[in-house]
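Give me C-alpha cells for this 422-residue protein.
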Amino acid sequence: MARNLLRTALRTCMRGGLLLSAVTFLAHGAQAQDGGTDAQVERGRYLAIAGDCLACHTAPGGRPFAGGLDLKTPFGIITSSNITSDRDTGIGSWTQPQFERAVRHGKSPDRYLYPAMPYTAYVKITDTDISDLWAYIRTIPAVNNRVVTNKLPFPYNIRTLMIGWNMLFFDRSAFAPDPSRSAQVNRGAYLVEGLEHCGTCHTTKNAFGGDTRATYQGTSLQGWYAPDLSNNTHTGLGGWSADDIVTYLRAGTNRHTASSGPMTETIENSTQHLTEADLQAIAAYFKSLPQRTVTVPAPLPASNRQMMAGAREFTVQCSACHVSTGAGIANMIPTLQHNPAVNAPNPDSLINIVLRGTDGPVTTANPTGAAMPSFGWKLHDDQIANILTYIRNSMGNAAPAVLASDVGRARKAIDAQQVVWH
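Here you go.
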C-alpha cells in the first residue's frame, strides 16, 4: 500500500505538470563527484533504473533515495535504508568496495542485510556495472534521514542469522554467458537474473524465504500473487509472443492484460525506461525458457451453485467494462478469456483487485491508464467469491474455486474496506 501511495503521488505531480525531484534524478542524474565521469554517471543512472532502486528506497512523500519505505515480509517489516550521500544517515562515508559488498554480497560495513534487498540477484552484476552504478549513486544529494531498518520480531531481528541463511540459500555465482545462446538472449538473462531481479518476486519461496527450484513459477507476496513467467499456456507466458512481452514492459498493457499492484510500479519506475534493445533481450530470454507442462484442472460445470450465482453477479457488476463474453478492450481493459493470471493457482491478486480496485499503468506509451473501481465496500465476501469462481471456470479458464473465507482473510490482511450496506 505504501508503494501504491508513492506511485499515486508521482502520478499526481506528473499529471499536474510539476517538476518532481525524483523524476529529475531519474531523467538527468546530478553532477559527477570525486572523479566519476559524466559517461559513467549516465550509465549508472540507467542501471539504477533497471534495478528499480528508487521504488524501494523512497518513502511516500519522502525525498528520493532517502529510505523509509516499509516492506512487509512474511517475517515482519523491513524498512528500506537511506542510500543518499549523507555521511551520518546515508552511505556518504562508504567506499566503492563497501558498496560492492553490500549490493552483491549482502554485507554493509556494519551489518548483514536481509534479502528484501535483492543481493541474491545483484550478485550477478558485473564489475563494470557496479563501478558505474556507484558513480551515479555518489551524485545523489545528501538527505539527513535516519531510518530504523530492522523492525522484525525476535529471532528474525538477529542479523547474524543471515550467515546461516546465506550458506543455505545464497548462490554467489557470477553471471556467466551461455555460449550456446545468442548475445541477445544472454543480455536478457543478465537483466532478468540480475538487475531486474525478476526471480525475487516470481520464484516460489520455501519456509525460510529462500528460492525453490520452481524458478519464475509464481509466488505470493504482500497480498498479491506474482504470476507464473514460465513457458506454459495455462498459467504462464506460453501464449504470449516476444512482442507481447515487450509491449507489456513498455506500456503496462498489451492485447492480453494490464498490469496491477507491484508490477505496475516496476513498469512505471523501471522497465518503460529501458532501451528497445534491452526490452527485446528480456523478451527473447523468457521465450527461450523450456516449455513447461502444467496439470489443467477440469472447470466447474455451469450447473455448479457458485457458477450460477457468479454468472448473475458478473452480468450485473462486471460486464459493463469487461463485456458479457469477458473480452475486455485490448490495451486498456484486460481480457478475461483464456487468461493465465485468472488461471493462477492462487487467487490473491484477483481478490485484491476486486476488493480495493486498481489504477491502470501510466506510462509514456500508455498515458491514460484505465482504473478499476473498488468493490470491497459494495460486495460481500460470498458475492466476490462467486464472481471470481465463475470467471476462473468459464471463458476458456479452469482454476480452483474461490471461497468466501479466502476473500474474508484477504480483506483483513490488506485492510480492505468493509461492506457498508446489508
